[in-house]
Amino acid sequence: MAAVKKKIGRPKPLRQRIGENKSWQKASAIVLPLALGLLIVLIWQTELLHSWLDTDTFTLPLMDKIGSIMYDNSDKIWANAVDTLKVAGIGLAAGSLLGYLVAIFAALLPRLGQGSLYVIGAFASIPVVAMAPVLNNWTKDVSSDAAVRSMVSKILVVTLICAADMGLNAYRGLTEIKLYSEDMMSIYAAKKRVVLWKLRIPNSIPYVFTALKVSVPASIMTAIVSEYFAEKITGVGRQIRENIVLAQYSTAWAYIATACVIGILAYVLLMAAQTILLKRYH
Amino acid sequence: MDEKRAVEIRTRNLGVTFKDNQGRDVLALTNVNLEIYKGEFIALLGPSGCGKTTLLRCVADLQQPTEGDLHIQGMTPKEVRLQKKFGFVFQQPVLFDWRTVKKNVELPLEIMGYTKKERSELADEMLEMVGLKDFAKHYPKQLSGGMQQRANIARALGLKPDILLMDEPFSALDEFTKEKLHEDLLRIWRETNKTILFVTHSIQESVFLSDRVCVLSPHPGRLSAVVDIDLPRPRSLDMRDEPHFNELVAKVRNSFEGGSV
Fold first, then answer.
1. Low-confidence ranges of chain B (pLDDT < 70)
2. Which CATH architecture best describes the domain B1-85+163-170+195-261?
3. For chain B, does the N or the C end have fewer beta carbons within 10 angstroms?
4. A204 contact residues in B (CB cutoff 8 A)
5. Where are the domains of chain B?
6. Is ipTM over 0.90?
7. Which residues of B touch A183 (CB under 8 A)?
């Protein structure tokens, strides 16, 4: 039927023509999500959402209210966000590095190294709500300054979570290499060090990004949760809790929104880095 | 064979036994006696399971013989490998995705510690030889299978190895690409005068390319015949229509032990 129509030369239906339009295809990638966002803002601001969820503007404040609180408290929110970012960032860096080193160790000495991967994996499967108080306790002698003590404790939780993720992924990247590539390296009498440097490590880069796609958001989530249990009252996560306890829901929502912004920005940065660095792999 | 020609590779009672999954001994190759001359093009022909790849891997020191001995230029395979005298072309192109074609060709030269300038010049020369000059800056995934295999050959030739070992290098390619690469390979061989060991399961391919076809039979893998291919050189694709070519093909086919394969 369709073929017959084409022969006669009848124009395609409008919907099909729009669907095949190149500039619409490009624009729709931006327009459609934006429209969805606007729709959510609309049902939120008109309190339609509140009636659906059977709640009120005290528990779920209007967006403009949240926005104005963020604006009025921007200094305080910024200071707390920086604290959270420090924990997440340092923990992510330390954990990823540790995980990668263990993965290299495991790739070079499988018998010893795979064991350490399992150990890290086991540690990371402990829920954060259990790990955070334990590490709080462990690190209480680290410094006489409560700010330093809780910082160390929070960073350690993030480190462990990220180390497991990176270790397991990087190990795959270091060992799952193309058939015959090890044989080829031995034809050229390449030393183990050279095989690591020229074959295994470059091969692991896409796997590093696979790990980071999980561990970047996870590092922020873990930092936020471990703040709940920390000695020092600081950080976006802790402020959410404090303000909910005090029934200051609008302020709590301002910090929730901040947490969302941090998470989204970190992910966008990671995606940009991946696009640039992994170009040659695709 | 020309009396003056030196023996490059010599095997004596070579055999390989390995253990299968259940720990039983499997005789992959037994009692192989072979002399390969310098600059000769040898085809190792046989059905799967005849040990032809095993033999090639023993020469390359990627596998250890369990019986007999194997000497190359009077040395052990390991000594020759450590002197980087082998070029090896695998069944599949082993190109690193993160390197351009040229950088892939440069890889062995990097390992050998050549300077940047030397590497670049040699790689250009090799890419020119295999007809990939215009694709030097492409990444492997941007190339067709045939072009990837050319890049693979360029890399194997880069170190100017004495001995080129090829393990069914064209078996995954279409007929047209294969014919083109056959001609290219023969031209490169003429120009560089290397000893080539070429593993294949195609009778036509083995006859067309080689000076001698070593016929291997399976269960256990053994050398059942060596057939001299007296087709004149340089060879052209239309020689395959000549009666003598077909006589040689029939001769090779009839030399498999246990009848035709």
1. 1-4, 258-261
2. 3-Layer(aba) Sandwich (3.40)
3. N
4. none
5. 1-85+163-170+195-261
6. no
7. 62, 88, 90, 94
